[in-house]
Amino acid sequence: MEINEMPILTEKKPWYRLLYVQVIFAIVIGIVLGNFWPDQSVGLKILGDGFIALVKMIIAPVIFVTVVTGLASMNNLSTVGRVTGKAMLYFLTFSSLALVIGMVVANVVQPGQGMNIDVSSLDPKSIKDYVDASKEHSLTSFILNIIPTSLLSSLTGESILQVLFVSIMFGIGLSMTQDKSKPVIDFLNALAHPIFKIVEILMKLAPIGAFGAMAFTVGKYGLAVLWNLIGLVATFYLTAIIFVVVILGAVAWYNKFSIFKLLRYIKDELFLVLATSSSESALPNLMRKLEKLGCTKQVVGLVVPTGYSFNLDGTNIYMTLAALFIAQACNFPLSLNQQILILLIAMLSSKGSAGVTGAGFITLAATLAVVKGFPVQGIALILGVDKFMSECRALTNFIGNAVATIVVARWDNQLDEATLKKELG
Question: What gap in Å lies between CA 91 and CA 327, rounded to an integer?
Fold first, then answer.
C-alpha cells in the first residue's frame, strides 16, 4: 500500500466536545434563562443574529467555489441541464405532496374547530406588513430577481438563487475554455480550502448562537403562549414527522439508504437548525457532508442551493395546514373547490416569496387573499406561535434537501454508493 493510500486514524472526540452535544446544552440553558429571566434574555438576540449573519457571510463564497469548480471540471455541459431538470421534477413532486398532506391532516384533525373566533376582534394592523409585502412578491418578480444587477453584486447580496445563477454561468464559461482558464480553475480549487476552513471555525461558535437564539425566543414569547395554540403546533410537528419518516423514509429506502442513518449523520446540523430556526445556518456544512457521502460536487452545488428556494417541504405543509386552521377557527367553511384553489395557488406563491424575510406569512397572506371573503386577518391568530413552528419548518426543509440531493445524485449516476453505505454505516 502506498503512503497516500494509508487510512488516516482520527482520535475519537470526548462527548463534551461533540458539536451537537454542545448545542443541546446551549439550547437547554437558553430555555431556562429565557423562562426565568425573560427581560435579560431578550437582549441575547444579538448572539443568535450575529451567528446567523456570520454563516450567511460565507454562504455565497461556498456556493460559488463549489458550483464553479464542479462545472469547470465537466466535459459534457448537458449534465447541468439534466441534473437541474431532474432536481426540479423531484422538487415539484414532493413540494406538491407536502401541500396535499398538510391539507389532508387539517381536514382530518381539524385543529381550529371549536375556537369560534370573531374576526372583527382581530387586529388587522398586526399583519399589515405581511399583507402589503405579499402584494409585492409575484412569480414574475421572483424570476426577474434571479438576475443580479452585476456579476459581483450577486456575491454581496442575500439571494442564494442569484449566487447560483452567476456561479453556473461562470462555471460554464470556465468549462468551455478549460485550457486557457486553467490558472483561474486552479486558483478557485485552492480558494475552496480556506473557505471551508472558515466554515469549520464558524461552526465552533454554533453553541453560542444557539444559546442566544433560544434564550431570546423563550424570553420574548414565553412558553405560555405555546399552550394557547398547542393543538395547531402539535399537529404541525406530528405531520412533519410523518412526512419525514414515512414519505422521505420510503424515498430513502427505495434509493437504498436509511432515513434514520441520514438523520444521525447530519445531527450536528439538525440541532443547529433547531436552535436558530434557520436552515441557512447549516447550509455550508450540509454541502460539505453530502460531498463526503459520495455525491459529486456538481450535484451538490446545483441541487442544494436550488432546493433552498424550490424544495420547501416544511413550509408547504405549514401553508395548507395554517390556511385550514384559520378557516376552521374563524368558522369560514371552505368547499373542496376552494381548498384545491388554495393548493394550486400555494404551489406558485411558495416559489414567489422564496428568500424573503417572513416568507411564511407573506406567502400565506398572498395565497389566502385569492379566496373571496377569506378572513385573511385570521393570520394574526398564529403570530404568537409561529416562532415555535418555524423551527419545524426549517428542519423539514433541511432534511428534504439532504434527501433530494442524494436521490438526484443516484438518479443521475453521480453517487458513490459504496461511500454512502460506508459513511452512513
Answer: 28
Which residue in the block uniquely carries the three cell numbers 439571494? 159
Query: How far is the C-alpha of 374 from the C-alpha of 232, rounded, in Å?
Result: 19
Contact assessment for residue 271 and residue 288, using Cβ atoms and an 8 Å cutoff: no
- DSSP conformation class of 122: S
Tracing cell 441575547 back to the chain, one arrives at: 44
Question: Residue 369: how many CB atoms within 10 A of its CB?
Answer: 15
**Spatial contact of 304 and 333, defined as CB atoms under 8 Å apart:** no
C-alpha–C-alpha distance, residues 21 and 15, integer Å: 7
Domain ranges within the chain, ordered by starting residue: 15-424
Amino acid at 20: Y
pLDDT digits (tens, 9 = 90+) for 134-181: 555 555 666 777 788 887 877 777 777 788 888 888 888 888 887 888
What does the pLDDT look like over 113-142, one tens digit per residue?
A: 776 766 666 655 555 555 555 555 555 666
Chain length of the chain? 425
DSSP class of residue 159 equals -
* H helix intervals, 73-127: 78-109
What's the distance, CA 75 to chain centroid?
31
Amino acid at 26: A
| CA atoms of 49 and 58, how far apart (whole Å) | 15
Residues 25-62 have pLDDT tens digits of: 888 888 888 888 888 888 888 888 888 888 888 888 88
Alpha-carbon span 364 to 349, nearest angstrom: 8
Range 15-424 has CATH code 1.25.10.10:
no
Identify the bridge partners of residue 295 per DSSP, sorted by sequence position: 415
